[in-house]
Amino acid sequence: xxxxxxILMFILTITACKKEKEESTTVATETNVDTLASKxxxxxxxxxYKLPNTEEKAKWLKQYGDKVKRKVLEEAVLRDHKVKGTxxxxxxxxxxxxxxxxxxxxxxxxxxxLNIEHKDNKIDTLKMVSEYISKExxxxxxxxxxxxxxxxxxxxxxxxNAEFHFSFAMIDKSGEPVVAIQVNGNPNNTQSANETPYxxxxxxxxxxxxxxxxxxxxxx
Length: 220
What we know:
Helix content is 38%, strand content 21%. By secondary structure, the protein is an alpha+beta fold. The protein folds into two domains: 1-39; 46-207, no CATH class. The strands form two sheets. It has a four-stranded antiparallel beta sheet. Strands 3-2-4 form a three-stranded antiparallel beta sheet. The protein is globular. This is Lipoprotein. Residues 182-220 are annotated as: Disordered.
């Protein structure tokens, strides 16, 4: 009887130790997941701005762009893409609602860019492409989804009826055309598009390191 009691106590002790170990492992796993989640959007753009050329910046964004703090990213794209000169010679306007545009960009981050499909200075349609820089053809006009979403939030108030106006234009009579965006947040109330336009930096990638304008070809 005494021997049976000792065996039973031994079994209970082993079971208790095993359960404690499992609980400890579960807690550790949950802690690791929480830590990873908290770091998933904790980056700044300091390293991005230190990179010397467009190609390296595009690679950095592809790897780390979606981990940048949302507020930091929103402020940066709105600041960096804002037209600081005079917009002239606008033509080929293409209008699309935010409701339809977000169906195109879906849940993409820096794994894809919104590409302007165009011919003879007329915008035909918009589609997603996997890279910021293409080695052949061009010129290309591409926007990050971060910029598009930030404009929808800032000027469209995420209203599905808000209109995005894309058009070809010149800035201060520059030799390189850009594609400018203006957002009409409430077209149903005859509201006009925002007076401050935003533009792409991806004119012709083949000239990305020759163009003296430092504002050209930034994939942010």
